[in-house]
């Protein structure tokens, strides 16, 4: 008898059947059985609790260096205690042998054939365990997202304060420009008024001289 999950004829992946159960649902577990030889290999799957599991195919023939998938099905157990085991037997058969052509004593140890066996453990996994792991992972992600959100809010606040400060500075500069323009306009008006007044005085003085020089 060979070690768990592997022998001289075949390899089995995974080396342990793990059934993930949800309430009132059936669970499945797939096994990949690969032929590691240049010969045809027949296999048979047995279990310590045949009434609990539905295995297909439970018997088959694998061509050289080929593989097949075996599916084991299990209904939801009343409790999560499991002591079940699977046994996968394999033996060499003549080339081009079909599964329907296998003799009844193919997997009998007293038949004189070389028979190899692999034992596989069975374990039950509750969906609550997986959910808890997902929750823990989710909580970690939430914490990371919260830290990232806080950093983003802080950065946006700093950018907003800088924008407000720059806007206030621009408004102050604009007011200064307006005041300068108003002061320049007022100075020009005073100069123009003074010039008009001076012209008026000159015209009045000329008229006065003209009237004074005229004969009475």
List keywords for this structure.
four-stranded antiparallel beta sheet, 40% helix, Immunoglobulin-like, 1 helix, alpha+beta, 2 domains
Could you explain the architecture of this structure?
Belongs to the VAMP-associated protein (VAP) (TC 9.B.17) family. This is Vesicle-associated protein 2-1-like isoform X2. Pfam families: Motile_Sperm. With 216 residues, this protein is an alpha+beta fold. It has two domains: 117 residues, Immunoglobulin-like (Sandwich); 51 residues. Helices cover 40% and strands 29% of the residues. The strands form two sheets. It has a five-stranded mixed β-sheet with strand order 2-9-8-4-6.
Can you lay out the helices and strands and say which pair or pack?
Layout: E1 10-13, E2 16-21, E3 27-35, E4 40-47, E5 53-56, E6 59-62, E7 67-74, E8 85-93, E9 116-126, H1 127-213
Parallel strand pairs: 2-9
Antiparallel strand pairs: 1-3, 3-7, 4-6, 4-8, 5-7, 8-9
Q: What letter string, H or E per element, gives the SSE order?
A: EEEEEEEEEH
- Let me know the average pLDDT: 79
Instruction: Name the structural class.
Output: alpha+beta
DSSP strand tally: 9
- In CATH, the topology of the largest domain is named Immunoglobulin-like
Work out the helicity level. 40-55%
List segments where confidence is low: pLDDT < 50 over at least 5 consecutive residues: none
Structural domain count:
2
Can you tell me the CATH superfamily of the largest domain? Immunoglobulins
What summary fits the major beta sheet?
5 strands, mixed
Q: How are the strands of the biggest sheet laid out side by side?
A: 2-9-8-4-6
The assigned CATH architecture of the largest domain is Sandwich
Task: Give the end-to-end Cα distance, rounded to a whole number of Å.
Answer: 159 Å
Estimate what percentage of residues fall within beta strands: 25-35%
Shape: rod-shaped
Please tally the helical runs, counting DSSP H or I stretches of 4 or more residues.
1
Rg, alpha carbons: 50 Å
